[in-house]
Amino acid sequence: VDLERPERVAGLIDFGDALHSVLIAEVAVACAYAILDAEDPIGAAARLAAGFHAEYPLREEELDLLFDLIAMRLITSVTLSAARKDRTADNPYLSISEAPAWRLFRLP
User: Fold this and answer.
1) Other CB atoms within 10 Å distance of the CB of residue 33
2) Domain housing 38
């Protein structure tokens, strides 16, 4: 709500992907998309996770899973992209993260 003009819509919240999950999954999803075109993807993910951890401390067991969860999010993303492209090939948005995700899987 815009406090100066409460009758004006100031933004929208998309609850389409909202779900109840474990906290580390949120960090993993954020990291997965933050590293797509990063020059140093491991460092970028580590910095994002460290910033999150500074505000909302994560348990060691959660942090141990982080890179596996990031990979799983990227795998899910490219899989969904491929499946959706079969149905709606004329929608370029569906493959926006596909190429950068595949590049991450090819890192040495």
Assistant:
1) 16
2) 23-105
* Residue 66 contacts residue 53 (beta carbons within 8 Å): no
The answer as to whether 8 is a domain residue is no
Amino acid of residue 16: G
CA distance linking residue 11 with residue 34, whole number of Å? 23
Residue 18 lies in a domain: no
Between CA 9 and CA 3 the distance in angstroms is: 10
| Nearest-angstrom CA–CA distance, 63 and 52 | 11
pLDDT digits (tens, 9 = 90+) for 17-69: 677 788 999 999 999 999 998 999 999 999 999 999 999 999 999 999 999 99
Does 7 fall in a domain?
Answer: no
Q: How confident is the model at residue 108 (pLDDT cuts 50, 70, 90)?
A: low
